[in-house]
């Protein structure tokens, strides 16, 4: 098994299609809290759709354009982080995260994102990783700030969700800024 320890009983592990049952149970616990922010939460509602979500990321990883890893706390899947939209030629990608309510407030997102950013810059050789969130997602904005990212601006009404359009706030980290002081 491949793991990356985060401390305090937490670790990162690959989140692969054969973990669909565990992923679905996690989504069932997390869905209400993460659905407005993470599109696959509302699409992963049964075993087949959960497996399809994880397969999509496995396909991205095989193509070199993304990766998803889960955050396990004391042996239970509680969240994750993903890198997607990777354009190796341009050196760009986007990071995303989610965490179920029972695991919040422990610094897991910050530690998991540091590991993913370190991998993106040092292993993948990316030049820029962006973080996109809605301006009303206070936890996400706080995480981007804790990571030392730079707020770049807002795209107005760029994110459709359930019949309404929302703004998207962009943050980024550049390779030469990593790791932040």
Automatic annotation (TrEMBL):
It is an enzyme of class 2 (transferase). GO terms for molecular function: acyltransferase activity. Keywords: Acyltransferase, Transferase. Signal peptide: none annotated. Its EC number is 2.3.-.-. Coiled coil: none annotated. InterPro entries: Acyl_CoA_acyltransferase, GNAT_dom, Ribosomal_N-acetyltransferase. PROSITE patterns: GNAT. Gene3D superfamilies: 3.40.630.30. It holds the Pfam family Acetyltransf_3. It comes from the Bacteria. Residues 10-167 form the N-acetyltransferase domain. The keyword Acyltransferase applies. PANTHER family: ACETYLTRANSFERASE (PTHR43441:SF10), RIBOSOMAL-PROTEIN-SERINE ACETYLTRANSFERASE (PTHR43441). This is GNAT family N-acetyltransferase. It comes from Catellatospora aurea. The lineage of its organism: Bacteria, Bacillati, Actinomycetota, Actinomycetes, Micromonosporales.
């Amino acid at each position: 098994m491949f793991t990356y320890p985060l401390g305090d009983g937490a670790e990162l592990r690959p989140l692969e299609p054969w973990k669909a049952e565990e992923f679905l149970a996690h989504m069932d616990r997390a869905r209400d809290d993460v659905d407005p922010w993470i599109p696959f939460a509302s699409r992963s509602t049964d075993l087949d759709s959960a497996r399809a979500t994880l397969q999509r990321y496995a396909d991205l990883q095989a193509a070199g354009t993304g990766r998803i890893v889960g955050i396990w706390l004391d042996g239970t899947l509680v969240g994750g982080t993903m890198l997607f939209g990777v354009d190796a030629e341009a050196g760009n990608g986007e990071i995303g995260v989610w965490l179920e309510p029972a695991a919040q407030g422990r610094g897991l997102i910050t530690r998991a994102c540091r590991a993913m950013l370190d991998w993106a810059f040092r292993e993948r050789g990316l030049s820029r990783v962006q973080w996109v969130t809605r301006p009303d997602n206070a936890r996400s904005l706080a995480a981007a700030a804790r990571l030392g990212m730079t707020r770049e601006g807002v795209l107005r009404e760029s994110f459709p969700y359930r019949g309404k359009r929302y703004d998207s706030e962009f943050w980024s980290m550049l390779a030469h800024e990593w790791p932040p002081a």
